[in-house]
Design a protein that fits this description.
It is built from 33 helices and 10 strands. The protein has 800 residues and is α+β, with helices and mostly antiparallel strands. The strands form 3 sheets. A 5-stranded antiparallel β-sheet has the order 1-2-3-5-4, covered by helices on one side. InterPro entries: ARM-like, ARM-type_fold, CIK-Related_Protein, HEAT_type_2, Kinase-like_dom_sf, Prot_kinase_dom.
Length: 800
């Protein structure tokens, strides 16, 4: 029973076996008779520090003082005092006589002397870090002396430890006792255990055991002397040997010297109060101390102060000690961003600091905060995340992107701000390779379909560029349904000349995904029209594209004549030098930000550019683009295509599982349901259809200006014969009704031949045509001409 009560009083455990921590390697030094060990938690493996004190018998004076230290450390809490976690006292019978061991478990720390050696700071950075550490210890001593009326009794280098975030904390409370100057007969640990304090650290009155003078002195007198000893030890780099060494001030900074001398005054009543040391010393006014102090009270600052501070922080961080920035400032900054007290401009500083970390540390310390920020509703934070996505996007795992990041990023596609829509679009270049096929086909392509008819010409152009870049990540079925339709029906018919040029280059860059029938019947007829485009840059790209696809056709013919039909239809982009520029052009246009001089050959246009602006130099021709490639040794189409999951049926997955709620939610590239049973030989059917309706464009165009006006004005009537020539080779049935303009909505019901998608999709459904909806997009104007290709929606079964 006595042993049980003793265990309850002495500690919070009952034995070493029950200690929920593993004891590791020891540190070379510790305060007094204590030993300092590294340790880990048995529950989660988190690091801790374990202090042990061994005594020969329960009445040992070291053990009695140690128990006082355990009690004080458990009850005294302050940010600059070592955090207590657990304690226990055990009795060991290993030797001839039993031994009693006290264990204290605290947060993971390292002795100050060892941390100083490890950091190896010099010059101004050393002085700034020492100032920050002394500032923390002084606050802890001031708290004990002035607020708690306690005396530590042995402030020195051994009684200070350093945390993982490089904070200095005070411990070694074995001699800690209450100060009662009014009671002359008061006794406490100071009287009982003052012999534990080294003689070199004792002020004159304590060395002489002049308790009457001590009681008359202010409560900070003994600890102010100890703080002076600590200052000497850290700046001299040696352990104090005797009191006379304190007179040597050569190593003490001049700005700290007056306060150092006042701390070591021979008269206890004239010693400097530690609280005054913090407030008045010129030494503590430096960039590091001011920066950390601002971060710690960030929630008290107004928005203007925060914005000014975080704009200066990236440059300021380069001037501060690197280890302190990474271990102290970075966690503070990440926490303030995560909990909303920091401004969006803080993200720039966070990513800059994160760039100094190893990839593993970046994933542990920075990425979790960044991922959480994607859920923020603050538009400034969303803009900052998208603008800097190239700095962290590659570090995000595919699962995190698909499940946590993309759902929040995708909201930007429908944002009312054109700038945010464009940033969201550009971010997809980095995120798309990490998306699953289900997300690519069922969500991303739906948004891109809407952006291809966006009111901003720059967004339409960049959408085409993005489609060309992510084509390799789409499965084969999706590519067949999307690419040609997006590039020919929309991009090549856009009223904005850079968008038409982007469509031509996208077709060239993705040429390896088209068979010979598609090239001959769907691609070449559309590109040839652009050789008389009003824009010279578009004409130049069109001529190069025609040459490229004709070269593919010649290679196909040669292989067919040679009897090598197995590889005849798989001629790819890698064999065509004219295509080498698209990767570099598209990559630079979608990843570089804000520097017009660096993006001269780039197709990206500022979102605020008016729709009537037509700048031929915005899109780079294939012949010059190769000089600006991001990776000149890798062609876009040479990247291996990811295998399609067995559960994905290409474009059909949208109809059958992903968007079952409304037909109107389907992607704009597939307005008509595909046939349940595809034809057994589509290539043969396409060839037969092409033979029945041979290409005869010159006959259907009595005036050469027809194709020119098709690009310049959106209200020119397109003859049905011309449409049949472009798309009729793969249409299911010849049209029966008269032709109508593609870009003007009729007031009444229309037939399927008015649909620009009907000719390139499956045969028309057997049901009657339904009336068009009243309007689409953001407004309700019924027939106003719009930029880009027009998409004619069908009403769904719900009437939307």
């Amino acid at each position: 029973m006595l042993k049980f009560l003793k265990g309850v009083v002495a500690g919070s455990g009952t034995g070493l076996k029950d200690l929920p921590y593993n004891i590791g390697d020891p540190y070379p030094c510790a305060w007094g008779s204590w030993s300092h060990f590294r340790g880990t938690s048995k529950d989660d493996g988190s690091p801790v520090s374990i202090f042990s004190l061994t005594g020969s018998n329960p009445q040992d004076g070291h053990l009695a003082a140690g128990r006082n230290g355990v009690k004080r450390l458990r009850t005294v809490r302050h940010p600059n005092i070592l955090s207590f976690l657990h304690s226990t006292e055990v009795e060991s019978f290993d030797g001839p006589s039993p031994k009693v061991i006290i264990y204290i478990v605290t947060e993971p720390v390292m002795p100050l002397s060892e941390k100083i050696k490890e950091l190896g700071l010099e010059g101004t950075q050393r002085d700034e870090y020492y100032a920050w550490g002394l500032h923390q210890v002084a606050k802890a001593v001031s708290f004990l002396n002035n607020d708690c009326k306690l005396v530590h009794g042995n402030v020195c280098m051994s009684s200070v430890v350093v945390t993982q975030t490089l904070d200095w904390k005070l411990h070694a409370f074995d001699v800690l006792s209450e100060f009662d100057g009014a009671n002359a007969t008061a006794t406490g640990p100071m009287l009982q255990y003052e012999w534990l304090v080294g003689l070199q650290y004792k002020p004159m009155e304590l060395a002489k055991s002049d308790w009457a003078t001590i009681r008359k002195s202010p409560p900070w007198a003994i600890d102010s002397w100890g703080l002076g000893c600590l200052i000497y030890e850290i700046f001299s780099g040696t352990k104090l040997g005797n009191t006379e060494e304190l007179r040597s001030t050569a190593s003490i900074p001049k700005s700290l010297l007056p306060d150092y001398q006042r701390l070591l005054s021979s008269m206890p009543s004239r010693r400097l109060n530690t609280s005054k040391l913090i407030e008045n010393s010129e030494y503590f006014q430096n960039k590091l101390v001011d920066t950390i102090h601002f971060m710690e009270i960030l929630s008290l600052k107004d928005s203007v102060e925060k914005d000014t501070f975080f704009r200066k922080l990236p440059n300021l961080a380069e001037q501060l000690p690197r280890q302190i920035v990474l271990k102290k400032l970075l966690p503070l900054l990440a926490s303030s961003l995560e909990f909303g007290s920091a401004a969006a401009t803080a993200l720039t500083a966070l990513l800059k600091m994160g760039s100094w970390l190893s990839p593993e540390e970046f994933s542990l310390k920075v990425l979790p905060t960044v991922v959480k920020l994607f859920a923020s509703n603050d538009r400034a934070v969303r803009v900052a995340l998208l603008q800097h996505i190239d700095q962290y996007g590659e570090s995000l795992s595919a699962q995190i992107v698909d499940e946590q990041v993309y759902p929040h990023v995708a909201t930007g596609f429908a944002d009312t701000s054109a700038f945010l829509r464009e940033l969201t679009l550009k971010a997809m270049l980095i995120l798309a390779p990490k998306l699953s096929q289900r997300t690519l086909s069922g969500s991303l392509l739906k948004y891109l379909s809407k952006l291809q008819v966006d009111e901003e010409p720059a967004i339409r152009t960049n959408t085409t560029i993005l489609l060309g870049n992510i084509a390799s990540y789409l499965n084969e079925g999706t590519r067949k349904r999307v690419l040609i339709n997006a590039f020919t029906v929309r991009a090549l018919r856009d009223t904005f000349s850079p968008a038409r040029g982007a469509g031509v280059m996208a077709l060239c860059a993705t040429s390896s995904y088209y068979d010979m029938t598609e090239i001959a019947t769907r691609i070449l007829p559309n590109i040839v029209v652009l050789v008389i485009d009003p824009d010279s840059d578009v004409r130049s790209k069109a001529f190069q594209a025609v040459d490229q696809f004709l070269q593919i056709a010649k290679q196909y013919n040669e292989k067919s004549n040679a009897g090598d039909t197995a590889d005849a239809g798989s001629l790819g982009i890698s064999s065509m030098p004219g295509n080498a520029g698209l990767l570099g052009w598209a990559m630079s246009s979608l990843t570089l930000k804000g520097k017009a001089s660096d993006q001269a050959p780039v197709a990206t246009v500022n979102s605020v550019m008016p729709a009537s602006t037509s700048s031929p130099g915005l899109i780079e021709t294939p012949s010059t683009a190769s000089a600006h490639r991001v990776n000149s040794s890798t062609d876009f189409a040479d990247q291996p295509m990811p295998p399609s999951p067995t559960s994905t049926d290409g474009w059909g997955e949208i109809e059958n599982g992903i968007h079952e709620e409304q037909d109107s939610d389907k992607d704009g590239w597939d307005d008509i349901e595909p046939l349940d049973e595809p034809k057994p030989s589509p290539v043969l059917a396409n060839i037969q259809a092409a033979q029945k309706r041979p290409v005869s464009q010159p006959v259907s165009q009595p005036k050469p200006q027809a194709s020119t006006s098709l690009r310049a004005k959106s209200t020119v009537k397109v003859a049905k014969d011309e449409d049949d020539d472009l798309w009729g080779s793969i249409a299911a049935l010849p049209p029966k009704s008269a032709s109508k303009p593609l870009n003007v909505k009729a007031a009444g019901a229309v037939n399927d031949d008015d649909d620009p998608w009907a000719a390139i999709a499956a045969p028309p459904p057997i049901t009657k045509a339904k009336p068009l909806s009243a309007g689409r997009g953001r407004g309700t104007k019924a027939a106003a001409p719009r930029l880009g290709a027009q998409r004619i929606n069908r009403t769904s079964s719900t009437g939307m």
